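User: Please predict the structure of the protein below. I'd like the answer in structure-token form so I can feed it into my own downstream comparison script.

Assistant: Understood. Taking the following sequence of 149 residues as input:
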Amino acid sequence: MSLHSDIESIVKSVGLELYDTVIVNEFDETIFRVSVMSSEFEDGKRKSVNLDAYVELTHLLSPLLDVTPPVSGEYRLEVGSPGIERKLTTLDHFKKSIGEDMSILLENKEKIKAKLRKVEGNKLIFAEDDESFDINFSDVKKAKTYFEW
């Protein structure tokens, strides 16, 4: 098994979903960031994850990462939410963001803001002003969720 699938198994064992893992360098420090979200929904929206769940997950992941480090050298493990406004880089990210507002830049430079309704294969199906339209995932250059304050 790969490190990613081992991490995903541990995340699922505490009732959460793995959103992403990423290695970042900030202020001369290497951070291995594990982003998770609730697998439960309430009123059509994902439930929030409480701090105790992040702490528990950190304690479960640490021994695995001691044996199979994600990077060579020193790093800091950071477990948390992907955030209310987050980048969407994989088809799985879109699937986990159904029902959310998105800002999308297409390969042809067209910009779209719409709510994702569903994902069927490689098609992203959106709604905007009571109209439905779809976009092929391969046509997306950049995308992120956004929150209307």
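That's the full token string. The helical segments are 3-13, 51-67, 91-95.
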